[in-house]
Design the sequence.
């Protein structure tokens, strides 16, 4: 579904990704793990067109994303739950979700998608008119995921959904991700919470200073001696 | 005893004046909230609107209502062009450049108006009745202006609340980067907001020409006060600007009542300066 070939990108003269190769197949859940500053967020931002590609290629279902303007990426079926959730803090939950259905393709399905998301997260339905800035961290994450799902995406990009949340809430967030997987959605998730994320994905890539170091099945990676020593701390 | 019917009249006049100021403040706040640029020349857009109504009515003999519609669209187009030709190329530069360039536009529009229309004071020659109500005299043109301004603000509120484009306008003022992920093209929203801000200035022009003569420097009468209202309410905060408009207009009206008309403005501006010491972010602002 999503293919990255020798992808290089960065901020101005600063290079943050070094020929990254990555593939997400239809229906898969993939994690990109690694320490802070490894380029995981940059990777997602490049896929979403928020950062220009310097060289290499990336494509979604065979369509190259290189010359697609950032605001057209969503039309190709890619939705992005950004780092730190980035809700519109003084708008209600419902207005935040409405923004998720902004594109002309998504608008006709607004009601049915809203029902779908309220079914998935009943909590959001209860609080539909509450101002997003006043929600708890976990509720904000639900709203951010809900907003991304409003456009009926094929591929969901998630940037550190567990960051900045209390441990109990982190477990809930991983359950949310599991729920989304159960809906058959393809997911590319970036996480520092390695042990937990490896439980819910099929495959994972380990990233360090802008390039992929190891990749493999989640079950194998979690057994990998070097990974355990370096990151899981066991 | 100070309380008398003239005091009530002054308060009512203050409220009526506040309506038009609130409309202008809303237009300026809308542009600032979305594009993040303060149009120092906003009141000069009003001046252009007043001249277009005056010329349409006086020289081409068009009915006033038609002239008003033309003025609203003409100034909306002017707002669109200001963004497209002047602001857009320098959006990425330091904010002071954007402030200065709209300041430059202010003098450009003033001078061009003087060149085209001379410095003469002109008016439509309308004689709208003055209403007498329990011994109070309320100008009919002020009443029309107030009611129309309120209706326009309600319409704008509905647009911002009920439509996708309105939601995008509110969203972009809160996070201009993340809206792109939702398929919003910011450049388009900037143009829409600039045209809307221009349209509101055009409507404001229609309401002001009922009460004031137009001349090339008319912007000075409304520009600074509109700008101060926006800052007092918290720049970009539309509700704050709405309330601040009535606070300032009441100060002007009551100051004028208890002392002299000129004192009204002195008191309002001193109040503004003191408030800037107490709450530099504005009465309802929370942005740093």
Sequence:
């Amino acid at each position: 579904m999503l293919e990255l070939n020798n992808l290089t990108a960065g901020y101005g003269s600063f290079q943050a990704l070094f020929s990254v190769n990555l593939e997400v197949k239809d229906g898969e859940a993939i994690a990109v793990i690694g320490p802070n500053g490894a380029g995981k967020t940059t990777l997602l931002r490049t896929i979403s067109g928020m950062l220009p590609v310097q060289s290499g290629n990336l494509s979604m279902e065979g369509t190259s994303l290189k010359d697609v303007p950032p605001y057209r990426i969503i039309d190709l079926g890619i939705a992005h739950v950004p780092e730190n959730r980035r809700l519109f803090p003084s708008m209600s939950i419902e207005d935040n979700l409405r923004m998720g259905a902004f594109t002309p393709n998504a608008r006709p399905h607004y009601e049915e998608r809203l029902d779908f998301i309220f079914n998935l997260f009943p909590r959001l339905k209860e609080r539909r008119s509450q101002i997003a800035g006043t929600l708890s961290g976990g509720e904000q994450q639900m709203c951010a995921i809900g907003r991304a799902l409003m456009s009926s995406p094929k591929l969901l990009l998630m940037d550190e959904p567990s960051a900045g949340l209390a441990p109990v809430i982190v477990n809930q967030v991983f359950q949310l991700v599991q729920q989304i997987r159960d809906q058959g959605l393809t997911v590319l998730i970036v996480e520092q919470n390695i042990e937990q994320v490896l439980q819910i994905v099929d495959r994972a890539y380990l990233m360090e200073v802008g390039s992929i170091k190891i990749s493999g099945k989640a079950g194998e990676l979690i057994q990998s001696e070097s990974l355990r020593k370096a990151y899981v701390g066991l | 005893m100070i309380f008398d019917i003239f005091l009530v009249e002054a308060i009512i006049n203050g409220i009526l004046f506040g309506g038009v100021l609130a409309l202008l403040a809303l237009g300026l706040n809308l542009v600032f909230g979305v594009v993040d640029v303060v149009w120092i020349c906003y009141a000069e857009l009003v001046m252009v609107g007043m001249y277009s109504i005056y010329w349409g009515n006086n020289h081409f003999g068009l009915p006033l209502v038609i002239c008003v519609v033309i003025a609203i669209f003409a100034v909306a187009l002017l707002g669109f062009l200001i963004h497209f030709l002047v602001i857009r190329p320098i959006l990425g530069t330091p904010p002071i450049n954007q402030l200065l360039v709209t300041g430059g536009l202010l003098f450009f529009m003033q001078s061009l108006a003087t060149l085209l229309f001379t410095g003469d004071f002109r008016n439509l020659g309308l004689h709208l009745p003055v209403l007498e109500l329990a011994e109070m005299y309320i100008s009919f043109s002020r009443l029309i202006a107030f009611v129309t301004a309120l209706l326009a603000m309600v319409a704008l509120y509905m647009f911002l609340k009920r439509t996708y484009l309105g939601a995008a306008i509110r969203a972009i003022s809160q996070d201009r980067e993340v809206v792109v992920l939702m398929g919003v093209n910011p450049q388009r929203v900037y143009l829409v907001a600039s045209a809307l801000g221009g349209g509101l200035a055009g409507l404001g022009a229609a309401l002001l020409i009922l009460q004031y003569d137009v001349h090339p420097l008319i912007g000075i009468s409304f520009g600074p006060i509109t700008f101060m209202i926006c800052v007092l309410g918290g720049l970009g905060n539309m509700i704050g600007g709405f309330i601040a408009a009535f606070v300032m207009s009441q100060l002007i009206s009551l100051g004028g009542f208890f002392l002299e008309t000129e004192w009204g403005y002195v008191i309002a501006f001193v109040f503004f300066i003191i408030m800037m010491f107490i709450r530099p972010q504005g009465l309802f602002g929370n942005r740093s």
Q: What stands out?
A: Chain B touches chain A at residues 164, 167-168, 170-171, 174-175, 177-186 (CB under 8 Å). Residues 131 and 138 of chain B are 5 Å apart (CA to CA). Residues 5-278 of chain B form a domain with the ABC transporter involved in vitamin B12 uptake, BtuC fold (CATH 1.10.3470). Residues 5-35 of chain B form the longest helix (31 residues).
